[in-house]
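agent> fetching stored inputs for the glutamine docking request
agent> found them:
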Amino acid sequence: MTQSANLGFPRIGAHRELKKAEEAYWRGDLPASALQETARELRGRHWRAQKKAGIDIIPSNDFSFYDQVLDMSATVGAVPTRYGWKENTVDLDTYFAMARGRDDVTAMEMTKWFDTNYHYIVPEFAGDQTFSFSSRKAVEEYEEAKALGIETRPVIIGPVSYLSLGKMKETDADAMALLPALLPVYVELLDTLRQAGAKAVQIDEPFLVMDLSASQRAAYRDAFETLSSCGLDITLATYFGALGDNLEIALSLPVAGLHVDLVRAPDQLPTVLDAMAADKHLSLGLIDGRNIWRADLSAAAALADTAKDTLGAERLQIAPSCSLLHTPVDLDLETRLDDEFRSWLAFSRQKLGEVVALTRALNEGRDAVADLFTQSDRARDSRARSSRIHRDVVKKRAASVTSADLDRRSGFDERARVQQERFSLPVFPTTTIGSFPQTKDVRKARAAHKRGDMDDDAYGAFLREETERAIRRQERVGIDVLVHGEFERNDMVEYFGEQLDGFAFTKNGWVQSYGSRCVKPPIVFGDVARPGAMTVDWSVYAQGLTGKPVKGMLTGPVTILQWSFVRNDQPRHETCRQIALAIRDEVRDLEAAGIGMIQIDEPALREGLPLRLADRHDYLRWAVDCFRLSSSGVEDRTQIHTHMCYGEFGDIMPSIAALDADVISIETSRSQMELLEDFKDFDYPNEIGPGVWDIHSPRVPSVEEMVTLLRKAAKVVPAERLWVNPDCGLKTRGWPEVEASLEKMVSAARTLRNAEATA
Ligand code: GLN
Ligand code: ZN
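agent> prediction call returned; pasting tokens
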């Protein structure tokens, strides 16, 4: 018999119970015991739901108070010395201090989990790092499930991926050198699990779908040689891509079974089957753990049948492609979606049903689950035909894009000349990135409007007032290029998605982004079109208030794509191109309405990079093309800006330059302008605004430090191409620190101008 398995369930709760309890605990409004109780209740509920759904192999230790990588750091006692931790076990408050910082210490770094929008806490290792078994969480959760009568398969991040996810501090040594010190703790953990009664574990090694170094490859062999002696049935879980050139290593490791992602990489199945040793089991990741679409069960069953023909039913498990962490909990809560649309979707709970349906089809024949297959076929067919999805005009237009559509009329030098004539900006022109503080009043008004307690007129009047105040404040401070403040926007992607055809929104489709923070990504389900202008009225209104230029403010196509659930019935670049065309039309409408500068934000460009080096080139080509498609439909006299929330461009510098934005603003203050080196080495040709004010904290920088940063920048980039701006948008800040900081920023720019004039 084939078994159904799950690799992980969302931990936050269908109603974000964990988020609410944690935040109350952090505020001091909830005792630790109540937080623990909520967590226990959620774990129990999720285990029971999986059991009830018919999942044979249910995970434990997939729960986390913050992040599973941080959990592993706690388990192996990798607590940086600054937390002053001296106990035998890592307590909850030390754990949260590592995640979020404490009055006296900063948090650990956080970064994206592979190519998802989930963020993990980056392990920090010293050159002489030691490890000790310091959290029994995995064992306790196994025992907790067992006490509920549910046998589970604990999930553990494997030692090679764990070390690979971390950063060595103050040493250039290879983290793999720490493996011999780390492995005994893993052995102790597995021994303890076995003693508690566990029979199997899932060891996640997603790095097996990445390009590996020689030392990582060697580490895999050493690590699993050691772990294989623990007497547990180990399933080596890989996901987010194909094993590719790591297939041989993965299959040579002495483990009981292998999990492969057949949603991202269905083509790898024949090769995997060919190479499987006679004694291993194979877990088929057939249900998409990364997206919200109902599975095409017939297509998935065909893959499962192939595997069964080769390996036999006994050696197979059916599972989601990866942990369900990345999909919302329950579609049944979406009461406002129409039936047809709902029939296209599956959230975590529904995906469990799909896993079970596939397993039963293998074991009992498809007739046993005929209804589910029929529904799946029907959803697939209706998606293939629906006029809500397919619009010929959109497809035709996207297909007729030519390379001429991707080019500005003239090169940068000519444009810069025309634009300088038009705008007559001083050297070191000052600007901001777009948003101004989303104060309590702004959020209150938006909520009241959404509830229907504030009518459109009153809300519109409120927003106009806020916008005008923001314009006056910028004028008073003496900023050269203004912004309207984005008060009318909830979120930089949602705001556009809500106005575009082809997008849908859920009421409860939350997924964890980091810690207690959840996001509700839009769903791009159909061909994208723009029924009408989206931002022109606001930009025109703001520009009408002042003689200074006000930048039109748009979110770029790659970022809209990257922060949404994207349709899976056409390539991502196809969908991106449709979005780019909609933005292109908006850019042209802004230009026609007299807006002279237009900023197209692409903070997600870099995070869209594929996991494998070999795939990067392709991605960067279409991503850059989409940006250019959105931005190139304007006259030379219109100045295109872009913004990215990071400054680390080293390896993608040619693509950043290829965007051909007239001005780019980036984050650089935290790195003391070090990140600008990339621009120097590459000889970046256009204008740059390296952030001089770190907006991630309320601290007001001094004039002197901004002057110092600007002087540093001027050593790297010619002064006539430098702009002066903060690192990012200011929506999370308060007005007092914003006004104070902007005044100092303007003084800093003036100091440099004066120095320039007297030089
Ligand atoms: N214009 C946006 C803002 O200022 C940009 C935000 C971002 O890049 N994440 O809020
Ligand atoms: Zn930013």
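agent> quick read of the result: The domain at 387-414+489-665 is CATH 3.20.20.210 (TIM Barrel).
agent> awaiting further instructions
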